[in-house]
Amino acid sequence: MASTIVLVSDTHLSRARPFFQFNWEIFLQAVQANPPDLVLAGGDMALNAPSHPDDLAYAREQLDRLPCPWAMVPGNHDVGNNPPPPETVDTRGETTVSQALIDHYRATIGPDFWARDIDAWRIIGLDSLLCGSGLPAEAEQASFLESAMAEVGKRPVALCFHKPVFRDALGEADIFQGVWYPQARRLIRPHLDSGRVRLVLSGHTHEGRDETHGPTRHVWMPSLAFVTDMLGEWRPNLRGRRRVGWLRLKLGDEIEIVREEPDELLTTDISGWMRSGSIRLYEAFTGHRRFPGLPNDPGH
């Protein structure tokens, strides 16, 4: 028997700045008409929670409107972004992950890493923003993952987290903030190399992609809220489809994935915000305000 899971990501919801609420309402109507066994949210459900904590509270309220169980992994607009590797200068102007932001996420949403068994499968959700943070939760997550994988037995495993593992290949050495940094991949690489992980689900890039590398299928969830450079005029080609929507996944002996792009959805392209290559215009338009308790980090 195959379980049905709806995959939604990067909704960027906000009570104060409801730029992308319309697409969420269309999504909600579709899920209510045909409820899955689970909705899996791939992060960035909040518009800008590091600056506006209520954005995450509002995202939680919207998830609770779903007619079925749901699970979520955090994104950089929920808990802050990874700190860059030491040899890299951080020019993004984006808040980095902190204990205060993790605590707010856990109090509002729940655990930021978890395991859930659905029929024959085990789904393991991870917080990819912890990687390289040096926070105590990073070591806790590593220990959790080893335990969760040790309990699997012969059950197939799906991993879910916000950022894709890589852009082109697992062994690539280039530093690209849109995916896991090379050093951070040590957390999951043994499990990918072993072939025990059959499916990896991620969001963040605001484009859909479905590729198999070795024994593992890597699926990028599209954003429900917006795309960037839909025409491919200036943003690097990541081999993904730049359209808003969501995915319907069936997990059984086989993996079946259908992309949902109803005509009612509004495809918003925020190229004008992002063409400069930084996050600063996004921060300005989403109303930047420092989260209480964050240090005065000049890189923020």
From TrEMBL:
<dbReference type="GO" id="GO:0016787">
    <property type="term" value="F:hydrolase activity"/>
</dbReference>
<dbReference type="InterPro" id="IPR004843">
    <property type="entry name" value="Calcineurin-like_PHP"/>
</dbReference>
<dbReference type="InterPro" id="IPR051918">
    <property type="entry name" value="STPP_CPPED1"/>
</dbReference>
<feature type="domain" description="Calcineurin-like phosphoesterase">
    <location>
        <begin position="4"/>
        <end position="207"/>
    </location>
</feature>
<protein>
    <submittedName>
        <fullName>3',5'-cyclic AMP phosphodiesterase CpdA</fullName>
    </submittedName>
</protein>
<dbReference type="InterPro" id="IPR029052">
    <property type="entry name" value="Metallo-depent_PP-like"/>
</dbReference>
<dbReference type="Pfam" id="PF00149">
    <property type="entry name" value="Metallophos"/>
</dbReference>
